[in-house]
């Protein structure tokens, strides 16, 4: 055990307070000066069902969940439905204990609630046998009893935090402070009493482990945020004041943050009858001059296909969010996957004309959502932010000053009434909203209610004022003008000094790893490890899915001998996109794929790299190598 | 100073202002009932003092969807069944606009019926005109949600086994606060009803019987018609009496008797915008105006939301 990092995990049933407790635990460690990162595992169920959250903390720069974990606080599942291990879903009460055995690192610590899990049960799952094999240190504590005595039974989680603090050497004042901020009143008092009683009891234990919380110090104040926060806050700072949606995991997080905050910011949130309506409302609001967004996850986004095409055809700006989860169909609602890439790129009839960004962490989620709004409104094009359950739900400490940004109320390429009076109209006074002469493909628009701006928006092909037209020359003009936007946006993105692509590792490395979206920072951590032990590797995290960053990826692939492409799907969708866009490099790219619902750990990337470059065998687990073209 | 002077300034307009000065001329078949909707809408707008650029007309797909091509205003010819969600968002974004949505019976009572139900229950202050010709016209004569039971078509060669949708009853149950039926053959009543519907502060639904002389030759020309206000004694503000009247009108239509008129009107019910403003979930001033007012500072996330993450 080293003192350089801590990976603490709290496990229980849905409803046992796992989320709130882990959030406070992470925040306490952040306030104590550490960088933190959380990983969230939960079932699609309201009460009961095995759920856990892992908090990783280290003095600086934590990029991923890491490998395995060190400390288990197991509450058992107080909402367990299935009474015995013959049951289809296993012995639920004990799952929050035995399901963690495979991930707990050697020398790790287990604290479990002996008030819920009795000795017989512990015997059944061979806890002590496993502990001896792995040199684990087990501390049974009657958390339920402590909670009953000093607070209420539901405060088992707080008692567990008190025990964790005593065993790891964390100052309880951080927790007390948070409890007062979050709860207040009698509830806070009862929790604090339970916390301290548990702390004192555990401080008396004979500590056989040598695990303790590392020490750290921040240069600036930190904020604990998720990818969903990054997306929602960027939307608000972009001047988005309208959201329409329908609940669906995991997109609901963004929808909730927006719905709770829009009234304060003077905006409107609408929960509507389905996702077809959700996308259509956002288009209607945006057409009427308001910056608007909608979003969903896979199945709901599928319903948005036709409105998405309407926005492309009528050149209505709109920002859509797609939070991926494991598919097809309902799939695994609470598990991450990156298998909607092709869906989001190509869904809806006709040639795609949209912007798609796939951010890799909460900061990128913020930056790229802001860019999505800029491009949508400057170019009158739908812009989509594609992320997944992992990025949406994991919390990270980020310097608070990162959010010190100015809002943008600019509605983009819109004419004023004065400008409209000078603009081109047809003989009857209709505004040439779809003039053939757009610059970079864009014709500045008018907004309903403006004098001199009336036109017809239509999903049909249309001529300059919007009347339906099937004239071949007009069709060619209009298609070319709309598609030109993508070329212009690519040029804009290339000209900027803040590329959405993230590079990591030594520039002259022999080997490369390509990655996109939420797996990016895990790959970066693996790259550091590989280089530290003598490999020569660099990585490129790609975010621009459309328009594709041809020159950046080409330069990267040309500079390496071989490249591993890491993604969470079964059909190597991003590698396919890269080959389609670049038309070469097939023989250089081997895919490392995973689609079991669990994100990659850094060690898995290391193993995948070794298997590819050093031609070793992939050790067990659910990863798969897809050979390069011709191999 | 407003960015939207078409909404805020007084205008005198006439029918011609709502007629496109150049092509396109309507492509509807001779004798089509759709002409009557266009004429009544053009007549109602100047009567109410509206000008083309304060009107947002959102249409669906089908012959009825072409209405926005032949009516001079801001228009949005959207996709099949989705006129209502676009239209109601437009009203939320800028309540100063006069928002009218229109589509066919397939559009509103079939593919878009879910939106019809929810837009009605929310009681948005807007008008929805459904061109009901009991047939899919533009796709050349298939059975529609309002086609009578037993109706034969290329897609239902043995005759439809389904009872037709009851549009007025559906509208009432869903929560529309103004419900009327009129017919292309009764242009005076049609214009009056459209004007009333636009004036109504809530969701006004008009089932507009528009004969299809090409694909629905079996259907009546919707004559003779009976005005329910003249021939029947019922209180249109009473939900139960209105429901009975609607049931009768819907049944009689398939027996060859055309009952038109005002079927239901609920006064003093707040529109959706009023409801939302009263719960503090919608700004008092039109949202769209904020983007075009240089003095309107937008609040920063940093000042309001970051503290809770520290």
From TrEMBL, chain A:
Residues 234-471 form the Pyruvate flavodoxin/ferredoxin oxidoreductase pyrimidine binding domain. It comes from the Archaea. Keywords: Oxidoreductase. Residues 15-200 form the Pyruvate/ketoisovalerate oxidoreductase catalytic domain. GO terms for biological process: organic acid metabolic process; sulfur compound biosynthetic process. NCBIfam families: OAFO_sf. Heterotetramer of the KorA, KorB, KorC and KorD subunits. This is 2-oxoglutarate synthase subunit KorA.
TrEMBL record, chain B:
InterPro entries: 2-oxoacid:Fd_oxidoreductase (IPR051457), OFOB (IPR011896), THDP-binding (IPR029061), TPP_enzyme_TPP-bd (IPR011766). Keywords: Oxidoreductase. Residues 61-208 form the Thiamine pyrophosphate enzyme TPP-binding domain. The keyword Oxidoreductase applies. Pfam families: TPP_enzyme_C (PF02775). Residues 1-21, 140-166, 265-293 are annotated as: Disordered. It comes from the Archaea. One of its GO terms (molecular function) is oxidoreductase activity, acting on the aldehyde or oxo group of donors, iron-sulfur protein as acceptor. Residues 7-18, 265-279 have a biased composition (Basic and acidic residues). Residues 282-293 have a biased composition (Acidic residues). GO terms for biological process: cellular respiration; organic acid metabolic process; sulfur compound biosynthetic process. PANTHER family: 2-OXOGLUTARATE OXIDOREDUCTASE SUBUNIT KORB (PTHR48084:SF4), 2-OXOGLUTARATE OXIDOREDUCTASE SUBUNIT KORB-RELATED (PTHR48084). This is Thiamine pyrophosphate-dependent enzyme. It comes from Halovenus rubra.
């Amino acid at each position: 055990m080293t003192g350089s990092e801590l990976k603490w995990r709290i496990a229980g049933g849905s409803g046992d307070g796992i989320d709130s407790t882990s959030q406070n635990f992470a925040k306490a460690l952040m306030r104590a000066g550490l960088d933190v990162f959380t990983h969230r595992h939960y079932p699609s169920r309201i009460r009961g069902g095995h759920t856990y959250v892992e908090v990783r903390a280290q003095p600086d720069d934590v990029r991923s969940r890491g490998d395995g974990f060190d400390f288990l606080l197991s509450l058992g599942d107080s909402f367990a439905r299935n009474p015995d291990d013959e049951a289809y879903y296993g012995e639920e009460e004990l799952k929050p204990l035995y399901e963690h055995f495979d991930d707990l690192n050697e020398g790790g610590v287990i604290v479990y609630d002996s008030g819920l899990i009795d000795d017989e049960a512990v015997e059944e799952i061979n806890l002590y046998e496993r502990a001896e094999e792995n040199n684990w240190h087990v501390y049974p504590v009657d958390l339920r009893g402590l909670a009953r005595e000093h607070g209420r039974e539901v405060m088992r989680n707080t008692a567990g935090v008190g025990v964790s603090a005593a065993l790891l050497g964390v100052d309880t004042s951080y927790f007390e402070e948070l409890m007062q901020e979050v709860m207040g009143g009698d509830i806070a008092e009862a929790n604090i009493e339970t916390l301290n009683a548990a702390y004192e009891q555990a401080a008396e234990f004979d500590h056989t482990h040598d695990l303790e919380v590392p020490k750290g110090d921040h240069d600036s104040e930190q904020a604990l945020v998720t990818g969903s926060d990054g997306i929602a806050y960027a939307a608000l700072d972009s001047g988005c004041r309208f959201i329409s949606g329908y609940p669906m995991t995991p997109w609901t997080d963004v929808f909730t943050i927006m719905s709770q905050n829009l009234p304060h910011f003077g905006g409107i949130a609408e929960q509507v009858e389905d996702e077809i309506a959700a996308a259509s409302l956002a288009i209607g609001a945006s057409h009427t001059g308001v910056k608007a967004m909608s979003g969903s996850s896979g199945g709901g986004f599928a319903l948005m296909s036709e409105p998405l095409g309407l926005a492309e055809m009528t050149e209505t700006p709109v920002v859509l969010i797609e939070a991926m989860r494991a598919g097809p169909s309902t799939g695994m609602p609470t598990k991450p996957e990156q298998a909607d890439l092709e869906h989001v790129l190509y869904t809806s009839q006709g040639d795609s004309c949209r912007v798609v960004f796939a951010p890799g962490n909460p900061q990128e989620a913020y930056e790229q959502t802001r860019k999505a709004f800029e491009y949508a409104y400057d170019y009158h094009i739908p812009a989509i932010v594609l992320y997944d359950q992992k990025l949406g739900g994991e919390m990270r400490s980020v310097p608070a000053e990162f959010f010190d940004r100015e809002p943008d109320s600019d509605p983009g390429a819109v004419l004023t009434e004065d400008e409209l009076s000078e603009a081109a109209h047809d003989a009857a006074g209709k505004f040439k909203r779809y003039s053939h002469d757009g610059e970079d493909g864009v014709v500045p628009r008018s907004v309903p209610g403006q004098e001199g701006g009336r036109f017809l928006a239509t999903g049909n092909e249309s001529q300059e004022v919007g009347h339906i037209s099937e004239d071949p020359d007009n069709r060619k003009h209009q298609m070319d003008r709309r598609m030109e936007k993508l070329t212009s946006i690519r040029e804009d993105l290339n000209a900027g000094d803040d590329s959405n692509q993230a590079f990591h590792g030594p520039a002259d490395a022999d080997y490369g790893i390509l990655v996109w979206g939420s797996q990016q920072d895990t790959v970066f951590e693996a790259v550091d490890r590989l280089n530290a032990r003598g490999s020569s590797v660099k990585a490129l995290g790609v975010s621009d899915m459309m328009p594709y960053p041809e020159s950046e990826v080409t330069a990267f692939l040309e500079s390496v001998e071989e490249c591993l492409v890491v993604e969470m799907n079964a059909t190597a969708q991003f590698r396919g996109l890269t080959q389609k866009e670049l038309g070469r490099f097939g023989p250089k790219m081997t895919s490392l794929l995973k689609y079991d619902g669990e994100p990659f750990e850094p060690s898995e990337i290391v193993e995948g790299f070794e298997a590819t470059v050093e031609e070793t065998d992939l050790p067990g687990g659910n990863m798969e190598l897809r050979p390069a073209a011709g191999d | 100073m407003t960015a939207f002077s078409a909404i805020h300034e007084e205008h005198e307009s006439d029918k011609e202002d709502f007629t496109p000065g150049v092509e396109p001329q309507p492509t509807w078949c001779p004798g089509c009932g759709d002409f009557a909707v266009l004429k009544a809408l053009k007549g109602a707008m100047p009567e109410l003092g509206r000008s083309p650029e304060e009107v947002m007309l959102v249409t669906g797909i089908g012959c009825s969807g072409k209405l926005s091509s032949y009516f001079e205003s801001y228009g949005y010819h959207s996709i099949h069944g989705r006129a209502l969600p676009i239209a109601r968002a437009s009203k939320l974004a800028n309540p100063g606009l006069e928002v009218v949505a229109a589509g066919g019976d397939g559009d509103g009572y079939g593919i878009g019926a879910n939106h019809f139900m929810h837009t009605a229950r929310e009681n948005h202050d807007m008008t929805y005109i459904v061109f009901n010709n009991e047939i899919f016209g533009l796709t050349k004569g298939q059975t529609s949600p309002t086609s009578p039971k037993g109706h034969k078509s290329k897609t239902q060669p043995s005759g439809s086994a389904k009872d037709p949708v009851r549009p007025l009853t559906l509208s009432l149950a869903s929560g529309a606060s103004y419900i009327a039926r009129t017919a292309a053959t009764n242009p005076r009543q049609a214009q009056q009803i459209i004007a009333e519907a636009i004036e109504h502060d809530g969701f006004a639904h008009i089932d507009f019987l528009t004969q299809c002389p090409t694909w629905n030759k079996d259907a009546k020309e919707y004559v003779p018609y009976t005005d329910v206000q003249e021939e029947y004694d019922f209180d249109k503000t009473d939900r139960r009496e209105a429901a009975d009247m609607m049931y009768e009108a819907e049944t009689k239509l398939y027996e060859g008797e055309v009952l038109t008129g005002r079927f239901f009107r609920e006064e003093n019910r707040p529109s959706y915008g009023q409801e939302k403003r009263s719960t503090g979930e919608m700004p008092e001033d039109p949202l769209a105006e904020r983007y075009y007012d240089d003095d309107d500072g937008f609040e920063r996330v940093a000042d309001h939301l970051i503290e809770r993450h520290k």
